[in-house]
Amino acid sequence: MRPRWPRRVFAQVLLVQLLIITGVAGLAAGFFLAPLAAQLDDQAEYRALAIARATAAQPGIAHSLLAGPPSPDGPVQADAERIRLATGASYVVVVDTRGIRYSHTVPERIGERVSTDPGSVLGGREWKGIARGTLGRSARGKVPLRDGEGAVVGAVSVGIAYDDVHALLLRSVPDILMYAGAALGVGAIAAIAVSRRLRKRTRGIELTEISALLDEREAMLHGIREGVVALDRNGRVRLVNDAAARLLGIGRDAIGHPLDGVLPPGRTTDVLAGRVTGTDLLTVRDGRVLVVNRRDTAGGGTVATLRDRTELEQLRRELDGTRGLTDALRAQDHEHANRLHTIAGLLELGLHHEAADFVAEVTGAHRATAEEVTERVRDPLVSALLVGKSAVAAERGVALRVSPATRLPDRVVDPRDLVTVLGNLVDNALDAAGSRHAAGPPFVEVELRAVGETLVVRVADNGPGVPAGVRELVFTDGWSTKEAAPPRRRGLGLSLVRRLAERYGGSVRVGEREGGGAVFTVELPEALRSPQPKQLTRRGER
Question: Is the distance from CB of 464 to CB of 436 less than 8 angstroms?
């Protein structure tokens, strides 16, 4: 029956660690015992060879070998047994050049031929190794036996029982296993501690549940429309979902890099990095209005969420424009009612000529205003914006004037961008001119000029002006000198103006108007199409 694998993370980690520790301990013991066995074999072989050399060096053994035939009571047997007993060897065998034994542990085998071929030793070469003979497996050493003149007259073979070497190895195994068991115990205790800590950190969640949670997390992060950016404690990007990559204009390759190296310097980077604190922080990135919130994690990192409010902001501005036009129409309705009452009174009094003059004057003034705008501003969207803003300005008691230098041809590349720029500047100018700090009758002057393919927009007012110390801050996302009502936020109009100007490769600046007030100047290179060349006919110029 196949053993069941535990389901709990704690049991799985503990079992795996115990198996690893057991395997490592077994391998370590094997790696230690294998060299030890080889070392013991070498020691036994060299010991047998040394005893054989010492025996062959005895001067009387070669003389006794040559003196007579082999005999159990002969001097060779006596010397060999004395050396065997003194050294603890298993046997000391002396043979002549024919391989006949002159000594042996078993006296009955003296006079017989040895079981192994002594040819190499009788040839003058020494030999050592492990071999099996009549006395069993043993570590052997063989050396040639020479007479006084150096001639080989026989050989000496010494053996040490291999069981003695094996017994020595077995005697060392318990100690090795004891140390291995101690290491295994320490490893098991460490494994239990690690497993308990892992169980605590994972809050008892199983491995299958962890995998499911990760899959759900990935699906949720990349499925929601809000952007999510996670940073570690060092400010490096750890996570970017699809919505954040789209809103910030970055890719998945940003993961692992510092945030300051992924995004350019600006308010968006400062807000995400935490250098600007607060909730529902506004920022503009590539013309999109984003609302950012940050939350710190237990590990020292940060998770930031981004919501796209571009469409909502555009709808809000359109609603503001519609509300302004509605207020202007309501004011005009009252004004028209008053004028109708005036005309009716003149007719009742019989002042017909005066009534006709009054009607001509009123209609001529409105017609002159509209004709002046359309004559100087040829783009229909921009001219309609100025006519509508003039009505709003009149309702607020501010005069909206078009500068005599205004000349805008019908060659605007994208009138919607120009409407955004001009509408934001005029709205801010109307707020400034309509404040109580305006010097003299409040007014706003608009100037639109084409310099080649560059469009210059200039909006001036006689309001309180912009102090020199904050002229760069007015273009920052979310910065405003005016207090906003709870449902709406300020500080986005001028930021959008700067982003649009930078998109066209231009710039925006604010200065001081002569006589008091502020002047905003925007330059939009390549915002105008090149003029079409005049076409010629056969008869001349068309």
Answer: no
* Count of other CB atoms within 10 angstroms of residue 442: 22
Range of the domain at 294: 223-308
Q: What is the pTM of this model?
A: 0.43
Select from 94, 139, 134, 135 the least CA-distant residue to 118. Answer: 94
CA distance 492 to 313: 9
Give the Cα-Cα-Cα angle 461, 462, 468 (nearest 5 degrees): 85
Q: Where are the beta strands (DSSP E) in 104-200?
A: 127-133, 136-146, 152-161
My answer on whether 228 and 134 are in the same domain is no
* 3-state secondary structure (DSSP) of residue 123: coil
DSSP state, residue 462: -
Q: Is residue 419 part of a domain?
A: yes
pLDDT at 521: 93
Report helix, strand and coil shares of the chain as percent, to nearest 5: 50, 20, 30
End-to-end CA distance of the chain: 100
Q: What is the pLDDT of residues 253-306, one digit of tens each?
A: 788 888 888 888 877 888 888 887 777 777 777 767 778 888 888 778 888 888
Is residue 198 assigned to a domain? Answer: no
Whether 191 contacts 14, CB under 8 Å: yes
* pLDDT (0 to 100) of residue 487: 45
Nearest-angstrom CA–CA distance, 378 and 383? 7
Shared domain check, 102 and 229: no
Q: In whole angstroms, what is the distance from residue 143 CA to residue 120 CA?
A: 10
**Residues in the chain with pLDDT < 50?**
1, 365, 367-368, 484-489, 534-542
Six token digits for residue 135: 């006395």
Spatial CA neighbour of 188 closest among 10, 22, 30: 22
Beta bridge partners of 308: 290
Pick the last residue of a domain from 265, 280, 308: 308
- Say what the pLDDT of residue 3 is: 56
Query: Domain total for the chain?
Result: 3
Q: If we measure between CA atoms, which residue out of 454, 425, 435 comes closest to residue 396?
A: 435
Q: What are phi and psi of 463, to 5 degrees?
A: -80, -160
